[in-house]
Amino acid sequence: MEEVSGDVELPDSFPGGSDAFEVIGLFCYGDSVALDPFNVAAVRCAAEFLDVGGLGARCDLYINQVVLQSWDDALIVLQRCQPLLPVAEELLIVSRCVESLAFMACMEILDPEQRRDQPGVDDAGARGLVGRRWDAEVVKELAARDLWIKDLIALPFEFFKRIVQALRRQGMKEKYVSPVVLFYANKWVLSKKTHKFWASTDEAGDGETDANRRATEILQGVVDLLPVEASGAVPVAFYFALLSRSLALELKEESRTRLRDQVASQLQFASADDLPLPEQDADRSVSDSPEVVTMESIVSNHVAMQRQGAEAVAELWDRYLVQIVDDLKLRPERLAELIGVVPAGNRKTHDHLYEAINTYLVEHPGLSGEEKAALCGHLECRKLSHEACIQAVQNERMPLRFIVQALFVQQMHTHRAFAERSDSFRYMLSGELIPGVAGAYTPSPGCPVPTSQPLSTTSPYTDAHTNAALDG
């Protein structure tokens, strides 16, 4: 007689596995069933699979009356839903948890006293990034300060994405929502520790490729979650951190373009330290690196769109050039192209452009006179500060014509400074600057009061003479 085994072989599609099946068996035989946040999602999906309607209704009641009233319970159930998809989605377990968590997060922002068993936190972490430069360590500290944010950024991206959408739908202000996205990106995209962990735990053997694939998927989603228009809720340095990371990943062209547009819209708020710098490569010039080519495209976009902050962007670009012109493979015509990315009229000052060209001449002593003259032709001495003019006059690397122009501008600055001081001295003697001083002055015998004389208006260093000399 063949022995009958008591084992039951469950199909691979059975949700919840043997533990959920055991609970259903107990229910069917009339035994007591203990539901908790750790098993209710699996039992509900298994009950649906086996068409055990009574247990399914009991699970729904438990979810609505117990789970959705608690931050911790809703979070646990949502996390347990990941291996139960798509059944958990069809039964609305995921959507109910998402909406409940979003609602409780909004209540936390609006009134922390409303919270009972949920983490008692304030919104300092969400506000702490506004107006500050992005820094990975600071971000980690702020994320750990608010427990509700720390819980959300631990979720799989698909669940996190839906909660962010629910937060906006339920009316949470962008100044609180965007930093949460930043925290998530910092943890899963920008963190080197996460990248190393993914690379080391890949069972397929190609850990680096798998880590980049995961980071790419999340980064593309993060870019879509960020606000299209600059809101001030996220520091501009964060966008540049994403931009730098994206250069090493294979983003879709749509996501790459969107990220560049976001950077371009806030370019005037950036500092030179935010911009991505290329690494030295023995086989190519830094001007052809992805970093420089990308920044060239972003600045060109900003100029073409005629956005606000044109002068600030021009100065930012010149500061960036200062950091890359020491590359020995950088050709003078390529440098001229980079200089021309910003229209000459957008430059309020040429001090940083002068510094960039001077640094290039130092690192490339073999340039011909024509090449030097072509580069210096982008400089306008009238837009150099007095200190820069003094340095330019003494700079033997500069073409003679440029030195002469700088000398005229320096003399013009000197004349203007002398004229201003002479005016002040004349007003003081006449009592206009300090009333009563001139009237109280009694000269000694044989020592007449000095008479104020008007300054000459035909100085050889007036603007008309200087302009003629510069143009000639």
UniProtKB/TrEMBL annotation:
UniProt-listed InterPro entries: NPH3/RPT2-like, NPH3_dom
Pfam families according to UniProt: NPH3
DNA damage recorded as keyword: no
GO biological process, one term: protein ubiquitination
Domain NPH3: 146-413
Keywords: Ubl conjugation pathway
Keyword NADP included in the entry's annotation: no
PANTHER family reported for this sequence: OS12G0117600 PROTEIN
The family this protein is said to belong to: Belongs to the NPH3 family.
Protein name: NPH3 domain-containing protein
Species, as recorded: Aegilops tauschii subsp. strangulata
